Amino acid sequence: AQTVTQSQPEMSVQEAETVTLSCTYDTSESDYYLFWYKQPPSRQMILVIRQEAYKQQNATENRFSVNFQKAAKSFSLKISDSQLGDAAMYFCAAVEYGNKLVFGAGTILRVKS
Amino acid sequence: DTAVSQTPKYLVTQMGNDKSIKCEQNLGHDTMYWYKQDSKKFLKIMFSYNNKELIINETVPNRFSPKSPDKAHLNLHINSLELGDSAVYFCASSHRGSGANVLTFGAGSRLTVL
């Protein structure tokens, strides 16, 4: 069964700067998917970005990109040009094919103006 | 036109009561889930149904009973509520055959047991 670890309970970033949120995971499968979800104070869970494990290329979505290191089982999220609206809880998650989505404990991101 | 809708959004009740949370999705997905988010924000899966069939049943007290009348609906009934049941309950849906299993979440239902 997969496990997901987020070692940073809280991070801060200045508006317009870049921040990286860390995530490591453990799985015995070769075929799996990784995700970052954002949960703002409204508590809605919003998909930020996803990565297929078989793809070497790191996923990007506008200001959000990942650094996927398959051998190290690491999946960090980089947020560039941080905005006040990026302030939220960020969850890393992993799913093996057809199986359940497992979440990390989350990282609170604070954005300072 | 909400994709995954849950009702009620807030629920305050006394210990020992029975309550239900309803969930409906209009995305045409074949799989639905219930997740529990505790006071420390930890999200853990409780149940999953695929085409009305229970496929994931985590270690959850049998006071919790999911029901899926059709693949667009998944309800959660909780008997004899306890203080520890206070949490936010999220419904989600996905198309399981897609492989990536991208979940779309509802807005959550905050349950407070007094």
Helix/strand layout:
The complex is a heterodimer of chains A (113) and B (114).
Chain A: E1 3-5, E2 10-14, E3 19-21, E4 24-26, E5 32-39, E6 46-52, E7 60-61, E8 64-69, E9 74-79, E10 88-96, E11 102-103, E12 107-112
Parallel strand pairs in A: 2-12
Antiparallel strand pairs in A: 1-4, 3-9, 5-6, 5-10, 7-8, 8-9, 10-11, 10-12
Chain B: E1 4-7, E2 10-13, E3 19-25, E4 31-37, E5 43-50, E6 53-57, E7 64-70, E8 73-78, E9 87-94, E10 104-105, E11 109-113
Parallel strand pairs in B: 2-11
Antiparallel strand pairs in B: 1-3, 3-8, 4-5, 4-9, 5-6, 7-8, 9-10, 9-11
Structure description:
- The complex is a heterodimer of chains A (113) and B (114).
- Chain A is mainly beta and 113 residues long.
- The mean pLDDT of chain A is 93.
- Chain A has strands at 3-5, 10-14, 19-21, 24-26, 32-39, 46-52, 60-61, 64-69, 74-79, 88-96, 102-103, 107-112.
- Chain A has no helices and 12 strands.
- In chain A, β8 and β9 (74-79) form a beta hairpin.
- Helices cover 0% and strands 53% of the residues of chain A.
- With 114 residues, chain B is mainly β.
- Chain B is built from no helices and 11 strands.
- In chain B, the strands form 2 sheets. In chain B, strands 2, 4, 5, 6, 9, 10 and 11 form a 7-stranded mixed sheet that branches.
- Chain B is globular, with a radius of gyration of 13 Å.
- Chain B starts with a strand and ends with a strand.
- The chains are: A mainly beta (113), B mainly beta (114).
